Amino acid sequence: LLDEQKAYLCFCTEEDLQKERARATAEHRQPIYSGKCRAIDPAEAQRRRASSEPCAIRLRIPERPIRFHDIVHGAVEFSNEVVSDPIILRSSGMPVYNYVVVIDDALMKISHVIRGDDHLSNTPKQVALYEALGWPVPEFAHLSTILGADRERLSKRHGATSIANFRDMGVLPEALDNYLALLGWAPTGGTREIFSMPELVKEFSLQRVTPSPAVFDMEKLYWLNRHYIKESPPQRIQKLTLPYFLPLLGGPLSQPQQETEKSDSSESPDVYKWFASVIQLLAPSVDRLDQLPEKASLIFNYDAKAALASPDNAEVLGWQNTDAVLARFTFKILEDELAREGKLTPEQFKKIVNEVKAESGAKGKELFHPIRIVVTGSHSGPEFDKLKARAK
Questions:
Q1: Does one domain contain both 30 and 76?
Q2: Which of 95, 72, 80 is nearest to 127 (CA)?
Q3: Is residue 313 part of a domain?
Q4: How would you class 206 by CB atoms within 10 Å of its CB: exposed for 0-12, middle for 13-18, buried for 19 or more?
């Protein structure tokens, strides 16, 4: 590049550059490098370099607009008046990003550069470098920025933003894949939202990616995750869920077990089968796997006093018929021999509830919600007959 006069030695100090930037700002000009070292005779520049005068190497930006096509943004043009001659090698001998990324991509024969649109401003310098080196310019696709609900750039203050965060929350990989694909991409037809990976591979097209910023909607991700939890094989969900329960459980379940989807529990004891049935019952009601321990608290850690004191149950407990329903239900449970012995069958339970209904006059949610609170600790949850077999 130096031999072909496509780059030149720059002897400007940091102090010189700061003065240039301050002057440009004061004059309301774009604070870019003036290019004053362009005028130094190459032979003179080499003599100064040979005498150990510190210098950087700058690429000589052509004196014309830099144009390139972006798959997402279309035709893009940068005036050479807003693109300064970039340093490609610092005076310390350290090459800079815009230089090494071009060399690296070219040597690897990268055909498409797909990245965030915050790199769009780097692209004219890179295009100029490809052209200076005589190498083909790859296709560029700059994807829209992902914003938080406040329409600010997504960051840690918005909550989970890393793959590890979502994994720890129990978001399935296929849910995250599906959701991220929908951010800034419009499927053909525009209404479908559930896509498997093979379907995404078939349907996805960069030509249908919008340049507008995309807002990350956590509730939409959770909706997709709930769908994939329901669709996943129960054994897989059991394996992924077990680590969340280890601090709460004793016995065989508390022993270390492989926490990946590749673990093999074909020889698991009956307790694992029981645990799997609990998870199968509760999993469809959660948005994330890390919510399951709380959902299962009615089985593992039921607290009647806490249930009655919970603000979530206050409305139900204040209904007009609640006291009558609970009084009759309690009396009949205490009166039933099977219930006292912990052997209450689903059929007998239904019989008791129907008797409470007839005697109290309550029906629908006025009947079932109060009973559910005293039995499970919550006015909503799994069906009683299914829960009975698992909590037994």
A1: yes
A2: 80
A3: yes
A4: middle
3-state secondary structure of 111: coil
Q: What total of structural domains would you count in the chain?
A: 4
66 and 120 belong to one structural domain: yes
Tens of pLDDT along the chain (392 residues)? 999 999 999 999 999 999 999 998 898 888 889 999 999 999 999 999 999 999 999 999 999 999 999 999 999 999 988 899 999 999 999 999 999 999 999 999 999 999 999 999 999 999 999 999 999 999 999 998 888 888 888 777 776 678 899 999 999 999 999 999 999 898 887 788 999 999 999 999 999 999 999 899 999 999 999 999 999 998 899 889 988 888 766 555 545 444 445 444 444 566 677 778 788 888 888 999 999 988 887 677 677 777 777 787 888 888 888 888 889 888 888 887 777 777 777 788 888 888 888 988 888 888 888 888 777 777 666 666 555 544 44
Domain boundary among 173, 196, 229: 229
Give every strand in the sheet of 139-143, ordered side by side.
74-78, 66-70, 139-143, 112-116
Considering the domain boundaries, does residue 326 fall inside one? yes
What does residue 382 show for φ and ψ, rounded to 5 degrees? -65, 160
What is the domain range of residue 284? 232-296
Amino acid, single-letter form, for residue 15: E
**Residues 6+ positions from 262 with CB-CB distance below 8 Å:** none
254 and 289 in a single domain? The answer is yes
Residues 218, 250: one domain?
no
Contact 237, 280 (CB under 8 A): yes
